[in-house]
Here is the input.
Amino acid sequence: MARDDQRALQYEQTLMYGRYTQELGAYAKEEAARLREEGGWRRSVTERSRSLELLEYDRGRCAKCRICTVRCQKFLISRVGEDWIFLILLGLFMALVSWVVDFAIAICLQAQKWMYGGLESNVFLQYLAWVTYPVVLITFSAGFTQILAPQAVGSGIPEMKTILRGVVLKEYLTFKTFVAKVIGLTCALGSGMPLGKEGPFVHIASLCAALLSKFMSLFGGIYENESRNIEMLAAACAVGVGCCFAAPIGGVLFSIEVTSTFFAVRNYWRGFFAATFSAFIFRVLAVWNRDEETITALFKTRFRLDFPFDLQELPAFAVIGIASGFGGALFVYLNRLIVQFIRKQKTINKFLMKKRLLYPALVTLLVSTLTFPPGFGQFMAGKLTQKESLVTLLDNRTWAKQGIAEGFDYIGNSQAWNHPQVNVFVTLVLFIVMKFWMSALATTIPVPCGAFMPVFVIGAAFGRLVGESMAAWFPDGIHSDGTIYPIVPGGYAVVGAAALSGAVTHTVSTAVIVFELTGQISHILPVMIAVILANAVAQSLQPSLYDSIIRIKKLPYLPELGWGHHEKYNIRVEDIMIRDVMYITLNCCYRDLHDVLLTGHLKTLALLESSESMILLGSIERVQLQALLSLQLGRPRRLEYLRDRATAEKKRLSMVSHPGSEDGSQRVNQEVRFQISTEESSFSSTPTPSMKPLKPALKRSSVVDRPPDIPMPTSPQDHSGNTLKNLFCVNPETEGLEDDFDVDDDMTIREIAEWEENQLDEQVNFDNCKIDPAPFQLVERTSLHKTHTIFSLLGLDHAYVTSIGRLIGVVSLKELRKAIEGSVAVKGVKVRPPLSSFRDSGTSGSSSSNSENEATELHKLWDRHKSMSLPREHLASDSDEKSQ
Amino acid sequence: MARDDQRALQYEQTLMYGRYTQELGAYAKEEAARLREEGGWRRSVTERSRSLELLEYDRGRCAKCRICTVRCQKFLISRVGEDWIFLILLGLFMALVSWVVDFAIAICLQAQKWMYGGLESNVFLQYLAWVTYPVVLITFSAGFTQILAPQAVGSGIPEMKTILRGVVLKEYLTFKTFVAKVIGLTCALGSGMPLGKEGPFVHIASLCAALLSKFMSLFGGIYENESRNIEMLAAACAVGVGCCFAAPIGGVLFSIEVTSTFFAVRNYWRGFFAATFSAFIFRVLAVWNRDEETITALFKTRFRLDFPFDLQELPAFAVIGIASGFGGALFVYLNRLIVQFIRKQKTINKFLMKKRLLYPALVTLLVSTLTFPPGFGQFMAGKLTQKESLVTLLDNRTWAKQGIAEGFDYIGNSQAWNHPQVNVFVTLVLFIVMKFWMSALATTIPVPCGAFMPVFVIGAAFGRLVGESMAAWFPDGIHSDGTIYPIVPGGYAVVGAAALSGAVTHTVSTAVIVFELTGQISHILPVMIAVILANAVAQSLQPSLYDSIIRIKKLPYLPELGWGHHEKYNIRVEDIMIRDVMYITLNCCYRDLHDVLLTGHLKTLALLESSESMILLGSIERVQLQALLSLQLGRPRRLEYLRDRATAEKKRLSMVSHPGSEDGSQRVNQEVRFQISTEESSFSSTPTPSMKPLKPALKRSSVVDRPPDIPMPTSPQDHSGNTLKNLFCVNPETEGLEDDFDVDDDMTIREIAEWEENQLDEQVNFDNCKIDPAPFQLVERTSLHKTHTIFSLLGLDHAYVTSIGRLIGVVSLKELRKAIEGSVAVKGVKVRPPLSSFRDSGTSGSSSSNSENEATELHKLWDRHKSMSLPREHLASDSDEKSQ
Here is the structure.
């Protein structure tokens, strides 16, 4: 069922926070126990098999040889558990994937060119071929992805960012998604649309790592450790970028910047190791395929080394940086604008939702029509593929005419930039403008695609434009004394590419990627200056592309604190915390529990010693409490009560009578219509025999992946009665009717209600309840800055604010997000933080619309229950319908 | 007094953990309060001045102009608070420092060469000049540093690592240290000894940042925020490396790898920004000084771009990597061995401690004698400075003879490598071997110096050696088809340099530094492979050089978890925690407090609700408790008691009598000998009138830097009595005898003892005590891995282990360190962790020798007190001596 929800991409339902605390508690405990057991089991197995093997081999002839082999094998298997084996395998596999994808893309693009070239006689046919080919590929890609795994759509970096933040998006790391992403990406890029492969490769590498982990767990238990998996995912992100651009260092840095908030330096080597290996294999494959003579950079440049640029050119580089900053912000804004525009237009939206493949096809049609080389494409080098454009843009020769005599020989692909009537500057400007909105539009298509490479190319074109202008302005270079060093527009292109991609992604490491891509680091200072300036401008205007997508997709993520906003040091937790904390006490009765469950909205509730002392003992998951309540009011307990009553009756009457089984079953059948399953929410703690009584220690997340071997609690026809109905009014299941109780449930609804009322007055027994004994605590004076740090560091969902053990408030991600967005919006130093006005009003409800709705609905049910405590027809009919 | 301790470099006394929790509590609160007050004050001041100004200027002639200027000025001042201003200033300043230091070093080295060259007629004089010059410089450097600021000795990276971990080493960031470090470093490097400037520059940059922060705090309050300062220090480390090598990217990465455990990505841009700016200015200065034509790399190489290396050369690169790994480990080991050898030889040690300048002089003498060019130096290119050696080693031509006809022209500095009788291979081998131990020895000299550059040069020489061998082996290169690409030994040198320096420092980013230093990235894959292999080998053999120094210096630092040691996932907190936690309860009496203080050793004590419930409410600093106790038993209270008694007496007798003041003072004088000052440990909470009653909220570190404006508590002649004496038996101060109490302290010792016994039975009043209400809590099942992460993330000193609010144990850094070292020592997968045997024995005392001693001494005193509760002569005479 959860699966279906996720397939519909309803993120809110599938997501949850608090992975961390879960891990600290129940998860770690169970895992450790299982590991120990497994370890012991495995050891005994291997020991037994070993002795058997030894016996067997001793009788053979080349026994020594064989024993040696077996030992080697064992050694190897024992080594499989080591990190570096995993990383090598990951790197190797990703390099192969990257190379194969590249190869397939190249073939696709060649096929298009071949078709286009073969139809040169007829322009209309040529146009048809030019346009149909990408439309078909993109439509296929979109359809394939939609059907197989809708999670594969888009870049994947925002999702990875969220996953590495500690949120569990399990469906994002399945084999189906992997297949959909790889094939979808190949088709999408093969169409020649302005799309990139970088973001998807980060996702693919993570998928690879997750699948490899699963596979490797057959050999060693360590692969199932959660924190190890997170570490490996972080390394995988680096591998993704690394093998995409053959840029190991840039890959590591880019993946850190893009996905992490706090980076564990001890994982650094993992990323480097895997990314280097992957990049190495990726390039070696090219050498083996005779594409290259030796291992070099992907887009090798040949700028002069002795005098790469003059000091006086630096202002031009700075201009590129600042302009790229604005451009990058504009790109992010444009991209979001397109998405929001289409979402808002309800009629368009409805139409497109029905015909999901229409939108990709239309966009592709538009883009490919405009790039049609004999048409408008001739003014914007439409003939060139993305890769070819980039290679020509990074050329170290100058295109603009140097004086009159010598003009640049446009040979090979560079020819595309040369139009007989139109200046090269016009071509470049058109290229930049057209590609800009095309890329922004194309990245909204629901296919696996990234935006890095298109932006990179646009940046290179912009840099080239500036460079060519400079070259035209100073034909003999700027340097005054001695040798003439002409200006190298290719260097400007490198700077522009790094700056614009840096601005869009809000990263500095694009500089390193550029060096690794071009194989030259001579322009390091201009590139760094431009990238930093671009970042400064872009970050002050817009969120990064990935953060923008995170907001569009409403993924749960904590925004970063802005640059140098001082007030974040002055806002304190007491300014933002919610003071009206929902809590339960150790000695509360079930009625309190019930009331609290009806009103609160947080996933966990604070457990206090008593409402006088307010001492915080721990926190309990909502689900656990619901389970407790359902246990208390459930049918088994009522039957027990009936049994006890019957025994008492028996004793009193000293008479034994077997009630007719037929009659009893009939009664049950009659009552079925009022029964509601509590299965969904109580399975994790219903006392099945397999469940050992846990030490009251640990916490569980509310969406627990049920292990397949634990039997479903057999309470499909639980007579949960009135009170529970208010809490769990969901799909009643009434197939199985087997019942091993020897007492019949012959209570009337009124009796049940009475019984429940009595039950609610009993004191809660927390023995079987999993309690998180150490929820995170803050002090009321903790600054917002510190709180943000702690939340990001530990991946917290909420933290209690205590004062010497006394609970005084709670801060959840929501409050924090609100506070940060509030603080970021306000400029300048404020003495009184803008949020201190919350201090008093914070007590009144500031719950989100979502949870408020939830609570409201529960309230409604509760009110209804109050008004009519006798059988309700409409509820009954509701469940009747489903039980038929 | 604390100052004196630190000057003697007794690290243990000056250091403390727990900065984090302190900050969370008292610090943040006070800071915020102060900020608000200050802000308010400043605002009112500026508003007033503004209106005044406006009034004034309106009367002037060019009023508009002036107003505009003033506004601009104000705007600028308001901007001073921004991070980027700070970073630009820091970068600018550090670039200047770096350039000036380089310039001075170059002049020093030139002077030596000039002296050496001028005395060519007489070898003995030449030798004398060659040897005396460095000896004088090093001795001066050592002496100067020793006198001015002994903290400036050594690299500084270990200390910065510790500081960034959250430990407060205030004396490391003073102006004195800055001066000592800069001048000491210049002299040390000017001597031509194999020392580096990188580590010291990290320290210098941090010093700069700290001083600049202080300076800037004159403009804006934000500069005094602790967490901001830590962020700026991290950026400063990047600047240090960046402006030392003109390597901004490498600088940032290296500083992250070397100093951080968890890196906040939001600080990333700070480092990049400042380091880029710094590197830029550093290189621009060189251009302005006409040293360079334009901005290029520091050690520019000119390898060919089209075919940098053949795929078949990769094994050779891998060999360099692995050999460098062993070499790096050997270097670290050798360095530590030398230190430990000298420390162990007690006679040598004693002698050297007396004549502190002898050791540097001797080492310098030895090294410079061996490098004397006409002597042994001729076989190891002794003539060349470090920089010259590196430039020649990175040369892109081949030294070994290619066939017979063409030999390499050794021109310029390369001549030094060419010895008429001896092969260049022998020269290289001798260079490597000699420099290896020389560098290891030289870095133990107590002057400001790093080891990075010497190691870098040795690595380059080793790479060159392998490269030359390869070139000799394959004179026509390895590539088989088509063009002949001869082997480039310079490329091997680059690989070797990166690999060896990476192995010694355990970093991968040396690769990036190498690219930035040489300005070429064509060898990226060989370099990455070699660096990773070198790291893999070195990390499995030895700690990094910086960690080794941390251990030698016994700095408080948490060791890293080893690579892929699985058992760290299986060890749990309950295996390592101390179960016998010292605690106090809310309703305890002062006697309990006293007993607990006598036995425990941790800096903080747990505060429980009651010993039955064991519910953890918070933790209290030991110092706070001592203060509470001293308050309870102090003279003011006793006087109050006396006053009350006197009043009662008065009432009873209805008679007023003024006791002779002369008599009283005499009595006081008589008793002075028994009085002991409690000032040292109680100043932070003695209720001086300036102290507002704090909400019982927050925690303080035990070594509090007393703000200069808070008056010393005036209790120099506190009659603390017997019980307190046991706790604070230190320098009694008895100068001032002013006393504004109107009752005389005429109690006898016995009376005092009795009174104290009564006082001890009273219940403790925690109202004025600073309590940390949210000490960090773990669950007993938390894994070691997770615990380590949390401790490193949050910079914790200790964490309580709780189970639903109940305190069951405590884990401090010590236990954790022990556990990690235990787990790292054991190899392979263990099902049962080696530490689970601790589980039961852990309860018995496992306190360190240091704190045990402390406790033992207290015990002794306590016993003594028990045995003789009447006046003690020897204590009295002790205090008498000092009071005279």
